[in-house]
Amino acid sequence: MREALAHTGAVPCDWLLVDGSSLIFRAFYGVPTTIRAPDGRPVNAVRGFMETLARLVMGRRPRRLAVAGDDAWRPAWRVELLPTYKAHRTAEPIPLLLRPQMPVIEAFLDAIGIDAAGAPEHEGEDVIATWTAQAVGTVEIVSGDRDLFALVESPRITVLYPEKSGLTVVDEAEVSRRYGIPGRAYGDFAVLRGDPSDGLPGLKGVGAAAAAQLIRRYGGVQGMLEEGRVSDGDRDYLTRALRVVRPVADLPIPLPAGRRDAYPAHAAGLTALTERHGLEDSSRRLVDALNGE
Fold it and tell me: Where are the extended beta strands (E) located within 106-233?
């Protein structure tokens, strides 16, 4: 399903949970670095992030909103289980021109009053999984990380996945359509097939079609392990990879309030930020969207 920005008459979701890093990176690469603050510093990611968030809030009209962050880009415990996990992040986890923009985005979120949080030694996907487990009502997750497809639970939980044609609503039916597997089995599929973006090698000789066939036959990786149809080496990989891929859903972090009576939370601080960074229009559009204007 496409056209995820507009609900076209559907009931607004109770929660919109945003994968902050995913949105920030897309903003950085999608908005020219020629967008600068009055003092010449690049603020393209800051502007792109706020503009995208404003469009999401206006289009989806969530009752509550929260942004999850990556406190660890490549958690040590995941690397210990699978040394190849996201190995590409070791070279340059954050582009040089983006690094100084990250705290600026955090400052804007705080001044506007949007709840944002991370968790030590965990990624944003783990924070989102934990919040989703605690949330009451419908949840829409905004992320370009396919690992979060494992959380879809129709009709309560869907992922808004960015593609060239726009945001796609990914529910269980969409996962089945794309991969030929049960809607909640994406994590098992990635482990079996492999995923270069996560550094998952997969099982030797197992591609997408074979992975889907194995899941349909055994119900998932756990079924394969219980049937004893894997070698010792494959069993070791599958056991470790499952722990790496599955988002952690029981972190000791509370679900935030997700809503204020009025925005911004700190008007004077927001004014200072917008003037310093030259982003008055972007911040105003986001504040107006949050206030339902």
Answer: 115-117, 139-142, 157-163, 166-170
Q: What angle do helix axes 280-290 and 101-112 make, rounded to 10 degrees? A: 40
Q: Which two tokens stand for residue 10?
A: 């559907």
CATH class of 15-171+248-265: alpha beta
Q: Evaluate if pTM is beyond 0.90.
A: yes
Dump pLDDT digits (tens) for 69-79. Answer: 999 989 999 99
- Token pair 């990380």 in the structure block, residue: 145
The domain spans of the chain are 15-171+248-265, 186-245
Q: Residue 244 in contact with residue 88, Cβ under 8 Å?
A: no
Residue whose entry in the numeric block shows the structure tokens 């009576």: 261
CATH architecture of 186-245: Orthogonal Bundle (1.10)
Q: How far apart are CA 53 and CA 291, in angstroms?
A: 13
Using alpha carbons, select from 232, 231, 235, 213 the residue that is nearest to residue 222.
235
Q: Extract the tokens encoding 271.
A: 């004014």
